[in-house]
Specification:
Strand content: 25-35%
Helix content: under 10%
Shape: elongated
Structural class: mainly beta
Radius of gyration: 27 Å
Number of strands: 35
Largest sheet: 13 strands, parallel
């Protein structure tokens, strides 16, 4: 049960962006009735004149061509639209690019925009904040498949009321929007989104990795009409971005699942939100909560209704290491009867033994609680040898507890189903905790619960906890 870290390679070619300030909205025509000539509320006497939203005016100064790095503070205006990016534009060396509301940025095939890349360390800032009435657009020139917008920490981007369409023409999983961190703690919140739509990406819509994350307040991200056979998902993230994923809509893609590619153990408190699509833990690494050291424990909270699918042979670990120490990870997964939390197989045709199951290393923290969860299709080889009094040859199970747990069961009102081995494997020296009566078991190949070794074992040894 060793977490396998994957190397990360930064892309060589990347893409460009833009933004612009909103025009002052005109007042609507007024009627007689107030001293200023506007309509009056009959109850309060207040002027009820409102601003009438206007569409973006036709630009009069464009098109404007761009093929050089941004220097200082540069503004791409709505009047200068369309802004034609003929070669990838880099915003680095402390530069700031501001793109006005109503601006349209069009990229040549395979080209885009980089923020704080290439070159390390470097900085850069992109501000592309439109409004509901005056949005911003990024698209390809004459319908070309352009590259992507790439934001590299410590660079930052603020994007609002922006549509990013037709990107993904650079080999970063075919993504149109990419944010990468520096690969060390704390997580870098480099990307702010507010009412951003990513549409028609060649592959995945958005990639967030290497401890990058969305900035606080991010909301209303839409990824749709995206994905190919190689990269069919709306979004790929590592475990450190989970806490920051915005509410929004991630449907209408080739496969509507958020791909989680664990890189290192989760060391910061995080929430897995119910975003309307499943999470897929899918690069062969285990999803691990806890740092394995004596720092304050990290807590992963999972919202009701969340479904997490696991690729073949992977596991969900709350503390990787075994030993008589308090676990450095906590999981709080409180579903409801109407909205259970599901841990399941990622296989198209799920079978018992597809994935390992839930592993609890160290001594389970008292705050760890799982209620109204469903754990199914577990029992793959865990590669573990544990203490037991049960007459069993293998230690595989839906839930494996390696050290004495709390005095009461920390998993309750839950269903353990379609397992290729046991339900609960209690693999330690100490008294048993009764998980059997607190949960329901369906179609299990092994014991509902194995018997731990409590000083000495009965003779003959039972197969299951009696």
């Amino acid at each position: 049960m060793t977490t396998r870290l994957l190397p990360f390679a930064l892309p060589f070619a990347l893409t460009a962006l833009a933004a612009c300030p909103a025009d002052e909205l005109p007042q609507s025509d007024t009627d007689a009735g107030s001293s200023e000539g506007g309509p009056v509320d009959p109850d309060t006497g207040d002027d009820t004149t409102t601003a009438a939203p206007i569409a973006c005016p036709e630009p009069t100064q464009g098109p404007t061509h761009h093929d050089d790095d941004i220097v200082g503070h540069e503004v791409w205006t709505a009047e200068g639209s369309p802004h034609l990016v003929d070669w990838t534009v880099d915003v680095r060396g402390g530069a700031t690019l501001e793109i006005e509301p109503c601006a349209v940025v069009q990229f040549a095939a395979g080209h885009g925009m980089n923020v704080a890349y290439p070159g390390t360390p470097t900085t850069g800032t992109l501000i592309a904040e439109g409004s509901a009435e005056q949005p911003i657009r990024f698209e390809g020139q004459d319908g070309a498949r352009w590259g992507h917008l790439f934001v590299n920490s410590p660079g930052t981007a603020r994007l609002a009321h922006l549509t990013i369409e037709g990107g993904g023409g650079v080999d970063v999983q075919g993504a149109s929007l990419v944010a990468t961190g520096e690969g060390n703690w704390p997580t870098q919140e480099s990307l702010f989104v507010d009412h951003v739509t990513v549409r028609d990406s060649l592959g995945v819509g958005v990639v967030v990795r290497r401890l990058a994350a969305f900035a606080e307040g991010s909301t209303d991200l839409i990824v749709t009409d995206s994905g190919d056979d190689a990269h069919p998902w709306p979004m790929i993230v590592d475990e450190h971005a989970l806490d920051s994923l915005p509410r929004g809509d991630y449907t209408g893609n080739a496969i509507d699942k958020i791909l989680v590619e664990p890189q290192q153990s989760l060391r910061e408190d995080s929430v897995m939100r119910e975003l309307g699509v499943p999470y897929l833990v899918g690069n062969g690494n285990d999803l691990v909560v806890g740092s394995g050291d004596d720092t304050a424990p990290a807590t992963l909270t999972i919202e009701p209704g969340v479904t997490i699918e696991f690729a073949a042979g992977s596991a969900f670990e709350v503390e990787h290491y075994t030993g008589e120490f308090m676990a450095s990870g906590i999981v709080v997964a409180r579903g409801t009867a109407d909205a259970p939390i599901t841990f399941t197989s990622a296989a198209a045709d799920p079978q018992p033994g597809d994935w390992i199951g839930l592993w609890f290393g160290g001594i389970v923290q008292p705050a760890t609680r799982l209620e109204h969860v469903r754990i199914e299709y577990t029992g793959a080889d865990c590669g573990c040898i544990l203490l037991t009094c049960s007459d069993i040859d293998q230690f595989e199970g839906a839930v494996i507890v390696s050290q004495p747990p709390p005095s009461e069961p920390f998993i309750t009102d839950s269903v353990i189903a379609h397992g290729g081995a046991h339900g609960f494997v209690l693999g330690y020296d100490g008294g048993a905790v009764d998980f059997r009566s607190a949960n329901t078991f369906e179609d299990m190949a092994g014991c509902p619960m194995t018997q731990p070794r409590d000083g000495a074992c009965p003779d003959p040894r039972p197969s299951c906890m009696e």
